[in-house]
TrEMBL record:
Keyword terms of this UniProt record: Hydrolase, Metal-binding, Metalloprotease, Protease, Signal, Zinc
Signal sequence segment: 1-22
Pfam families noted in UniProt: LysM, Peptidase_M48
Name of protein: Peptidase M48 Ste24p
Domain of life assignment: Bacteria
GO cellular component: membrane
Cofactors named for this entry: Zn(2+)
GO terms of biological process kind: proteolysis involved in protein catabolic process
GO molecular function, one term: metal ion binding
Taxonomic source organism: Erythrobacter neustonensis
Lineage: Bacteria, Pseudomonadati, Pseudomonadota, Alphaproteobacteria, Sphingomonadales
Keyword presence, Signal: yes
């Protein structure tokens, strides 16, 4: 949550526009997959590209970003799109979530966190090839057309609606607003489109000379990481579909391996080259955006900290921290503050309700939390045949600076979030200075090294061996060989 913008909706709306603003030819026609990127597609992609970078931590620079760009453009050439190398823009994003995506106009993105999960160059090419496949097949445009045929909320629901809120218009509006500013708000494709992009990525892998099975192996690593994250957070092993831009990688693994066929001697992986190139890459949160440590969020620059409710998990975005769980969803962010905390809370309710909403709290309560002046209020909203509570809980940190939680919970369920509300506090400069980020370290296995001995060097207090195995795509029965390169997560200093 880096120096969060003064308005929750401004940048979030830009991302939403990006998801919906697919580029089409006359009368809504979609160019065939083999057609070059059109001027309209390139113009629209260029318009939203800087806003999208801002939403996902910005584009990284340096040798690692150059390497990712090189591999991405080499794969894009295999798509058959005219001038693919020149037409595609490939960005490595400074984001701590495992994700990759693409938008019309040849803009392809992967997060640094997803790159750290990969184990060879072929897997990097597979992920980027999958995203190139979305661009080549004009999946964004087709999703937009389908949404327009169904209803104005069709695609919005696919992007941001939650299980809790169902499909009511009020529920979608509130949920969508909460999701804006977080890194969950990106276009989701249908299962058929995901599988088609997998197939196209595998085709591009083969044409580029890579091991075609890399699509299946990287999906397997992503599925294993999802499962581990869920276990560590004490939640369901499958990521909720409304919180995933690439749902259910586990179900796609076998399909990708079957499509790829048996391993061939000619397919390259470039494992050691890849590991050498990504050595030192930041792992997890960037301190400038705050860090998630288990159930705790700490921001060493904003000098604040809070704890998520038990059983909930957090996703750290560039403008907000999203908190998800079975009992509701929340977001911690900020907005413009003029020194009046009650006005701030009422404005936050208005923003949550949308332009035509009369959403307002029933009453406002003043309190103090860990020495911070605070104001909170609740509004009850009809959601189909049931009701939900919308809560805004705000804190004053300075005369010109305030932060707030915006929460949606089942009617009467706000108590679930009370421990979180009461955990917000200032941190000292000394505590902030003690926050040390993590980075990836590539080491060579020495004689006598084992999975257990190397895992003990992982910069975590729990599940060290599980984390080490998932990071290196090692099964429970895998052993190490002297001379083999493996990845560790260590403290940056």
């Amino acid at each position: 949550m880096a120096r969060i913008s003064r308005t929750l909706l401004a940048a979030g709306a830009a991302t939403l526009s990006l998801a919906l603003g697919a580029c089409m030819g006359p009368a809504g026609s979609i160019p065939p997959a083999s057609a070059p990127i059109t001027q309209d597609e390139a113009r629209m992609g260029a318009e939203y590209h800087p806003q999208f970078l801002a939403e996902f931590g910005g584009a990284m620079t340096g040798s690692q970003a150059t390497y990712v760009e090189q591999i991405g453009k080499n794969v894009a050439v295999q798509s058959g799109l005219g001038n693919a190398r020149e037409s595609f823009t490939v960005s490595l994003l400074n984001s701590p979530v495992h994700n990759a995506f693409a938008v019309p106009g040849g803009y392809v993105y992967t997060t640094r966190q997803l790159v750290t999960l990969m184990n060879n160059e072929a897997e990097l090419a597979a992920v980027l090839g999958h995203e190139v496949g979305h661009v080549a097949a004009r999946h964004s445009q087709r999703r937009q057309q389908a949404a327009q045929r169904n209803s104005i909320f069709g695609l919005l629901g696919a992007i941001g609606s939650s299980v809790l809120l169902g499909n009511s218009q009020a529920g979608q509006t509130l949920s969508r607003t909460l999701m804006q500013g977080s890194q969950l708000l990106t276009l989701r494709f249908s299962r058929e489109q995901e599988l088609q992009a997998d197939d196209l990525g595998i085709e591009y892998l083969g044409k580029a000379g890579y091991d075609r099975r890399a699509m299946g192996t990287v999906l397997a690593s992503l599925a294993a990481q999802n499962s581990l994250d869920a276990r560590l957070a004490g939640r369901n092993a499958s990521v909720p579909e409304w919180a995933s831009t690439h749902p259910d990688p586990a179900s796609r693994v076998q399909a990708a391996l079957t499509k790829a066929g048996p391993a061939t001697a000619g397919g390259i992986t470039n494992r050691d080259t890849f590991l050498t190139r990504i050595d030192g890459l930041r792992y997890g949160d960037d301190p400038a955006q705050g860090l998630i440590e288990g159930s705790r969020f700490i921001h060493p620059e904003l000098l604040l900290s809070f704890n998520a409710p038990q059983g909930f998990y957090m996703v750290n975005g560039t403008r907000a921290v999203t908190i998800q769980g079975q009992g509701g969803q929340a977001q911690m962010t900020t907005a413009a503050y003029n020194g009046n905390l009650e006005t701030y809370v009422r404005t936050a309710f208005t923003a949550l309700g949308g332009q035509n909403s009369q959403l307002a709290p029933q009453e406002l309560q003043r309190t103090t939390v860990n020495g911070l002046p605070a104001v909170y209020g609740t509004a009850r909203v009809a959601n189909g045949n049931s009701q939900v509570d919308v809560i805004v809980f705000a804190y004053e940190f300075a005369r010109d600076r305030a932060y707030h939680f915006a929460v949606i919970a089942p009617a009467g369920g706000a108590a679930t979030f009370n421990p979180m509300f009461q955990s917000m506090r200032r941190i000292s400069q000394t505590e902030a200075s003690s926050v040390v980020p993590r980075r990836l370290q590539v080491v060579t296995v020495a004689r006598g090294d084992t999975v257990a001995s190397l895992a003990r060097r992982m910069a975590y207090d729990s599940a060290q061996e599980e984390r080490f195995r998932v990071l290196n795509a090692l099964t429970s029965s895998s052993t190490l060989t002297p001379g083999q390169k493996v990845k560790l997560v260590v403290r940056a200093r």
